[in-house]
Specification:
The protein is mostly helical. 70% of the residues lie in helices and 0% in strands.
Length: 107
């Protein structure tokens, strides 16, 4: 092997290492953007009193779906809440994060 071939191999190795680190950085950026999006969705639920109220009704088993639900004051906040969760589900299906990423604490 002569010097130009050796330098070419070294250059190729450097390019492969650079591509690997670039790939890892892109993955980290994607996870960061997904986390920011989830946080913004969560904040929009918390900051919207109607969505927050319907969320807690569901959480504490007080929500009832019956024939009077349609055209009620609860229908639109529930639709907004479901669209937020749908957005999170789409990000999950696109493999932007794992279910472990959604856990807020270690408890």
């Amino acid at each position: 092997m002569n010097l130009p071939e050796f330098l070419q191999i070294i250059g190729l190795f450097g390019a492969v290492v650079g591509l690997y680190f670039n790939y890892r950085q892109l993955q980290a950026n994607n996870r960061q953007k997904a986390a920011e999006f989830i946080i913004s969705l969560n904040n929009s639920i918390v900051q919207n009193a109607e969505m927050n109220k319907i969320y807690y009704e569901i959480e504490y088993g007080k929500f009832e779906y019956n024939s009077s639900f349609h055209d009620s004051e609860k229908e639109i906040p529930l639709d907004h809440l479901l669209s937020h969760f749908e957005s999170i589900a789409k990000l999950y299906l696109l493999s932007n994060f794992t279910l472990k990423d959604l856990v807020l604490s270690d408890n």
